[in-house]
């Protein structure tokens, strides 16, 4: 909360202007000053300076609450609207759909449907209530230039057609108050704001201004597709060591450490925005393939007799002795609240809840259709999807001294 902007604090307008003029733009900047510093910078008295510090501290200190109050608030009339994914098994497991106030991460190899998931969520939020949507805005941060307005329009038209068909058949599942207005798809697309940062510095700056953008466009969802693209481009991948890039192992280690610091700052900004605005933040991550050159030590389940975790699924892009894991390392992995893993087995696609504070691990099969991701009912799940969660590969930032070859997934 110390990163909250001074402009969002409840202070006298003239005092806020004086703080900003003296480059005290966040609560952290103010609290790092002592009373004497504030007296000199702002012309305050000793009592006024101490009162200002106490006021800023009170506004940025998270208040305590009880579990009952949290539950009552989550189910009350002022609760954030439910954001359903359209995948019944996943929505049931997550209880209230994509959780608000936290970061949900999508991980998977290329072409498995991560961006399609993001587009479908944008459609679900931007559609009007009479079509089953929220009628709210979406902030879509597109770092890979993968956003497709044509695909979003296709999803919107398909969902509107399905809503019209349901109304014609007399179904009451849709909560809308009246008939579907003409031009609903165009109106929905006008609610989606697309930002395209070209660097991690620009991404951080846009996330810092996110509260203003969210409030201006009445957004109920923030999408970052993807968090890994800019970081891996600017700071390199571990695979650069074998390709002669990154200035050797020591240069690579420095790049990785710098990258983790940047990712930590961006994650903190995203968490602060999600919590203060009570909305879901959906972040896409890439995968990394680790290729082993020699015999590997037994996994975490070997000593306890548990079955090892699954290797790369057939058709998922892994091969040989490689295994797929989420990119960006353990520090980033601990920043996300919910992790959804998308993977292929042959020509079939599956979604798995790999990390969540609110539900057990569930697996479902899906296909990509006109409306987005659609669940396959009563699907037989392959055994390769099950395994010991402790042995599932989550790669560290850098394996110092190990003779392994790394390649970007």
From TrEMBL:
The domain of life for this entry's organism is Eukaryota
Q: Which residues form a coiled coil?
A: none
Where is it mostly found? nucleus
Cellular component per GO?
Answer: Rad51B-Rad51C-Rad51D-XRCC2 complex; replication fork
Under InterPro entries, the record lists: AAA+_ATPase (IPR003593), HHH_XRCC3_RAD51B (IPR058766), P-loop_NTPase (IPR027417), Rad51_C (IPR013632), RAD51B (IPR030548), RecA_ATP-bd (IPR020588)
Provide this UniProt record's keywords sorted from A to Z. Answer: DNA damage, DNA recombination, DNA-binding, Nucleus
Extract the SUPFAM superfamilies matched here.
P-loop containing nucleoside triphosphate hydrolases (SSF52540)
- Note down the stretches annotated as region Disordered: 290-320
Q: Which GO terms describe its molecular function?
A: ATP binding; ATP-dependent DNA damage sensor activity; double-stranded DNA binding; four-way junction DNA binding; single-stranded DNA binding
A Pfam family found in this protein is: Rad51
The subcellular location is: Nucleus
Q: Which residues form the RecA family profile domain?
A: 79-287
- Biological processes, Gene Ontology terms: double-strand break repair via homologous recombination
Q: Which family does it belong to?
A: Belongs to the RecA family. RAD51 subfamily.
**What is the name of the protein in this document?**
RecA family profile 1 domain-containing protein
């Amino acid at each position: 909360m110390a990163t909250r902007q001074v402009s969002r604090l409840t202070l006298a307008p003239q005092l806020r202007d004086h703080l900003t003029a003296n480059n005290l733009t966040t609560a952290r900047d103010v609290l790092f000053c002592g009373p004497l510093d504030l007296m000199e910078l702002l012309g305050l008295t000793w009592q006024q300076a101490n009162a200002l510090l106490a006021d800023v501290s009170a506004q940025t200190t998270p208040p305590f609450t009880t579990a009952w109050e949290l539950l009552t608030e989550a189910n009350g009339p002022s609760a954030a609207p439910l954001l359903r994914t359209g995948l019944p098994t996943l929505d049931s497991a997550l209880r209230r759909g994509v959780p608000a106030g936290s970061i949900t991460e999508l991980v998977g190899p290329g072409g498995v449907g991560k961006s399609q998931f993001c587009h479908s969520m944008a459609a679900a939020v931007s559609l009007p209530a009479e079509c089953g949507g929220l009628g709210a805005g979406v902030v879509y941060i597109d770092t890979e230039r993968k956003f497709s307005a044509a695909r979003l329009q296709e999803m919107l038209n398909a969902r509107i057609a399905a809503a019209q068909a349901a109304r014609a058949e007399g179904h009451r599942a849709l909560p809308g108050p009246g008939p579907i207005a003409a031009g609903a798809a165009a109106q929905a697309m006008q609610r989606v704001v697309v930002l395209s940062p070209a660097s991690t510095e620009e991404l951080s700056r846009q996330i810092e201004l996110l509260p203003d953008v969210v409030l201006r466009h009445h957004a109920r969802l923030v999408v970052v597709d993807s968090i890994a693209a800019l970081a891996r481009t600017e700071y390199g991948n571990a695979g650069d060591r074998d390709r002669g890039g990154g200035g050797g192992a020591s240069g690579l280690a420095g790049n990785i450490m710098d990258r983790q610091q940047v990712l930590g700052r961006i994650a903190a900004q995203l968490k602060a925005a999600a919590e203060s605005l009570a909305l879901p933040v959906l972040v896409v991550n890439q995968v990394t393939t680790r290729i082993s050159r020699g015999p590997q030590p037994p996994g975490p389940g070997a000593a306890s007799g548990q079955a090892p975790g699954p290797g790369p699924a057939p058709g998922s892009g892994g091969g040989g002795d490689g295994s797929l894991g989420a990119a960006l390392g353990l520090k980033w992995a601990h920043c996300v609240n919910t992790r959804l893993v998308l993977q292929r087995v042959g020509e079939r696609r599956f979604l798995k809840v790999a990390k969540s504070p609110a539900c057990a691990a569930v697996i479902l099969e899906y296909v990509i259709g006109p409306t987005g991701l659609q669940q396959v009912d009563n699907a037989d799940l392959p055994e390769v999807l099950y395994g010991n969660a402790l042995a599932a590969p989550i790669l560290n930032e850098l394996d110092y001294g190990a003779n392994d070859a790394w390649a970007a997934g």
